[in-house]
């Protein structure tokens, strides 16, 4: 959108375009992409050097000037009416050159430059997101570990249905977060391909070594085809899709916490630093932070929709519409993801379970009906559907009689069984009821892998710990690759010597 | 989330909550809601005065101090760790009072205060949006008026199908924009109800006059029920829905402009100030601005989805999640709408039709087949489906023979007709072809109301002009109501005298 | 996509296209649009008659044959490989004609035909939706009317905050539903413009009377411009937007009902016919129906997004993409809206409030703090912020001492007030506490319009009743217009005589 | 929602619930899940056998009866008022038993049963989608292979910018489709975990071998935690996310095809079987199929949004809202994906490139400016920005003089260069222009990997071929695992003998 340098457009872009489009874009890129632009320019210099188009001295000089570029100097250039960060960077470096380097930027395009800088930015944000995700997963796991024996009602359909433990519940959160990390890692690897060298659209005329460029920029490989390299912004769709999925899952866990922290459940408490009060209801703690977290998860899905809408029905080529406008909120999407993860981590670290209220909520319910039916079948050969009807009948009779689960009525059970043609003797009936309706034995009655039995939960948590380590290591390897690449480039430009 | 003033929470909100939640919210509200907060506080003072709880002097003092509140002073208060703009405003005024006014803020809540300030902000943005919308509609109408005789191909299914005029096309844009203004006005009126006086949730204990409060704040009426007043943020859904609809429609017109400005069509040109060039293809003008506009329309729908997601499955009551977080991008949505409208207006004002290329594109096509079939039926009693087949057969024969539409072959027509059992004499055949395939007569052959006939388009444009005026007047009435209300409040507080 | 009748395409559409595209579309249109197609064809015949192109006998014959068209006959035509309902209808009628009517379908296009049939369908569905909406609003109002004195906790931020009544709550639902009806009516009126007479794109060559056509088809007016008439499907966006808004609002009320019906709240009950049980937990009632309703509201927003995505970035003209594919789920959207409304109505009609539990939930809370602070200010001149601190201090002291709200400790209040430098005598203190903490007086303490005071709620409900009537009448007027139009057309075709 | 068998609910579900909720769900599950339900029941029988709770004869009997279950018999059961496919299946089998098997279904839940059947269905649809995706990728690759030498303009910003080949373009489509297959495979592997054995929520009481169950059902592993097994439907989000991404990408390629098939470009043609004509414009071919495909891609994203909205803010547990309602359109999403892929494949198989028009579009453009600038720098040491200005100046001069790209004006070039202080001799100038502006040499001038050079495109296509094979093999391995599992189960139940 600039015409200062050559060609047909002779007027300046109007103030309107500058105000509403160019300047915001310029600032956005300075904030998000500048370090990547510098790194790319350095890799380009390294290639000119390799191709013998510049000499070592020129390479070192250009490299040094690139290292000196700061946001402030770029901003100065912008105020001289440059429309674009790439041109500003070129001007900044050029002004620092004692002697011109004629060949500099020959056979170059801004299309693959911008595509490359954006992917580098996306990679960085994905790595950061993974770090925040693991911090939350760790917090969930620690909370789970210390609460595998804290009984609580497990709900289905908003009704308490079975006894579980808080540890069992938070292990589920950890599980899903590790799943998200695994997908994020896959997403990262899928975009870890370097667009540079694609030129404007159709490739480049000089013999650029795209494998080497990819290596110098910390990519796993070059993007195979020039067209996809400049036309695609699938990474923006894929990254925001992952954030949207994360948001959907977290919104569900957050819904439980909000309800459980509410006045009728009263299962949870947060420290004062994470709570709020209304001036007019001073006896109450509110948890606006939980509302904020849940509310923010909505944005994550919306930003994905934004990216989808923005790319929809556009030609498959390099377009401002796709490369800039459709990705306008990607940074905001990552920021929101970061905030959600950090705030949720603070919540889990501060969360206090009100164990007395959790236990009381368990003890008031007749949870043992299913167990009773199981035992009627297994010990007394009563067909299972009939056993269910008998167990159900017993529970309903107890409820109607105003009994608590612990007040057993073996005669009632026997009578109902008899009504279905089955005999249960008095001792057995008492034993069955004792076994089935003791809340404190509920967890240990479970036996299957992955069940709420504290030992099973412990096994799952141990496996998660191991998984988390494997994943975190994989992320670390990728971060190292980027760091190493930077050093390699600096050596190639003669900016550092090997002895350093 | 604040506990400075009373009650159970004894620690300060943590730095994290402040950084990620409280401070951004505070700044957002200072930027968007402060004038409304001040206006509301003045209306509240007017009510205390009416109820005899404060005297005229106190009212004038409070009113004056409220008028002195600036964003900077509010920001100072924030830095003293106040979490909330309402508290900051209270503190700022309180510090200015020579003598305390004990009753000030009795029976008040921040819930209806915030709900009210937000609706006032939404109303303001809707009025501004309407103004921008009308500017675009006016530009579309002016462009249409000067191009009712500029022939161009009308496309269906990406194929040129009939001759239309550019004026006919841009009249359609005007039509849809006026429709949007009409819905926006309805949306405005639907939200023009004052939440103040709803208290925290269930109403207020003092005898507040909610009709008067609504009037003092420029609302058409009070919101009838306290619960809806504080719980609903439907305005955010409704306003963003309208922006989303606007975006969807504009994206379609923008798609045409993008394609028509492309190298194969070459129908349009924009002035240099609105164009771009690629340094490496200096002979080309690009129109990134059109891409930007179209790309920005995507955000409008996305922000609506954001609001929908944010409110979804929340309790129907006052919630931070709904009142703040779900509306976090509403200002951005309005900003985006404004940018789209302003940029699109600049485009239409600068747009140049390349009439030669438009005409050439018309002349190469055989548009007259439909007319020919009509006339074969009407003048020669050939059943219409047969007439279509004959006309189609003629066109195909002409295309195969390599004729242009103006090269008539009456004998071919007669032969094909004969093949279907119909006789057309030579003079008639020539006349039929002459009439049907003369591109320059195509528009004037149309006769129905709303057709592309220049006179019909002129009638539509005149009606649109009238509609636009009625709508603009209606918007002006609403802007006046708000201005008048402000003056009335100032008089009630004794800040201005009637002679002013 | 058909080439049987004329022109260049000589092969049959492949089986694939038929299976995946043409046949589903044909069946969809037969199901949804056939009656409108017939009505439109009759209006067209009436116009041929008016223009003198056919005679009265031909008109009556065509009209009679059109009345005889059935879905089955259309389906027969489809199986003869016709790709399109309009062609099938033409063939069906043609086969019934004893003598051909050559002029029939001269100057006609399928573009405006389909556009018109779709709008007629949309209008019908909107009217039906309004009826279902009013049924729900009536159910909400009846429920509200019988529960204005049923106390319940009002929540903010998931914490009980004030006493409200169930009637107050359900009046809010009624309020929002009437708002939705009002917007739906506006939406209806905005689309009540007849596309017929727009031809393929640019209008028609004969002197069709578009005002009369509109009238014969029950439209309020013709669509002004031919291009918008065939290019726009904004009605699909607007109608689904309204459904999406309805869904968002209902999802919130449904969230409350789900939580309140849950085991920890236990505020609500549904009859067995609307409840579910788990075989293994027979003592429990589940309310899967509430989950279904809430879940279905999600689809409403999604179908709007679908329409937005489908129209996005398409040329502004007649397109299969927009006219058919983008609207592919509109009928499903209306169906889902209908199901949500009918099921929600059944829920409200069957819902039983568990008044004992609601009252108990109120009585355990210290709701009076805000009132106490108000009175300390109003009666004792204690500045309001200090009064809040004193009231808050009293409540916290009472909670810590293990008191219930009804166990007053006037000395504690006096002591705290004294600590802030204010004297409250013993009699006053007792009176203040008695007044503030009596849950049963809470509602009647409210006085502002729209508050939870039973009388205020009654006034709101009476106004709603009136509103509902005005709206329902407006909908009835529109339904009448369509019915009348049908009769007028039949008279014009001589199908009925005036004496009938 | 059923109460026939036991417990408190005594009335039948109302007709409304049956009509709007239960019956549609029942039919949906019969259509989509029945084979999985049968397979799961067989695995359960195998486990009862392993645990010694039933004998081999009972196992074989149950297995045989399960194999005999048909949709028709399930439908009969539904009409006897069973609300649920699981109960219908149980009843159908029970009625076939000569002697009861009391233990059958002891310790079982419908929660993990349904979760498991749904994942099995999702896996099947993902495998099918992969097959359709690879068919499209193959078609794209074949088309690319035969058109690596077909020149066409490459566009950026809707302006032709460089010469590319059709093969280069379609290689990009292949590339992106393989990327989608890779992500789909990862998505598949992520959900390839068996929920069975999770019970209602908290696990099971008997010693079920979850590893073995997973194996018998063709899963790679069991889902680790009981809670996630029944609460999560992340697979629905993940699968629809992938479909949405596919839709976004395909919409872009489809946009190109639509534009290129339009009358002003005229680059493409489809066979008649895939084309349409308008009766009134018989000389035209329309491509409604392309519009359909593009339109359908919109639904893919919308169905993802539907799933996101449906799960949002629900408790993390087993819920009808999530398990059924939120996934209500998943099958439709897969169907739409299938239709898009099949139709797009038909398009690519039938697509004919109009090479003459493609070449003509190339030849009219001055594509060589960039090359010219490069060579001015490389051969003449002109600094690159200046070289660009000179090249741009030359092109503009040629355009203004009305030259075609092939009409060289070396003197003009020399003059402009001189104006910038650089000397180019006449021979060089001619050579430079000859080289730069020869369209037919454009592709072979490219040299970088992934460029449009036919050899480079060939290399990319060969690599894609290899990738496609690796991916297809991976999908085949997964399909085999499911087949093998089925046979293993049948052997375990004694339904087949090892000699078979």
TrEMBL record, chains A, B, C, D:
Entry keyword set: Amino-acid biosynthesis, Arginine biosynthesis, Lyase
Signal peptide region: none
Keyword Cell cycle: no
A single MF term (Gene Ontology): argininosuccinate lyase activity
SUPFAM superfamilies given in the database record: L-aspartase-like (SSF48557)
EC number: 4.3.2.1
Top-level taxon of origin: Bacteria
Top EC class of this enzyme: lyase
Gene Ontology biological-process entries: L-arginine biosynthetic process via ornithine
Annotated Pfam families: Lyase_1
GO CC terms of this entry: cytosol
Protein name: argininosuccinate lyase
Organism field: Streptomyces azureus
